[in-house]
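Lab notebook, bench 4. Still working through the backlog of constructs that have no structural model yet. Next entry is a single chain of 91 residues. Request: give me the structure tokens for it.
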Amino acid sequence: MTLKGTNFQKKVWKYLKTIPKGKVKTYKQVAIGIKRPKSARAVANACAKNPYAPKIPCHRVIRSDGGLGGYSARGGIKKKLRLLRSEKVVI
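Model written out:
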């Protein structure tokens, strides 16, 4: 699949594909994972712009305080919660 987005977005989206089913990471952990530790907000924005959800699993990224954050794909936050529960993630 050829990703269409900014270089930063593509870097984030490629990293999201490495998060295993049933696991979550925080926006900050993703920022650290792409070697941009101060970019948690930019990571959140890249997740929000992800046109490939849920194939590229931005639903597996949550806030540092344990909150779900957002989910811009069809179905919104309820869909994010449903996807996480289907992967046996306890929220």
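Notes after review: The chain has one domain: 7-86. The first helix runs from residue 7 to 16. Flag for follow-up if needed.
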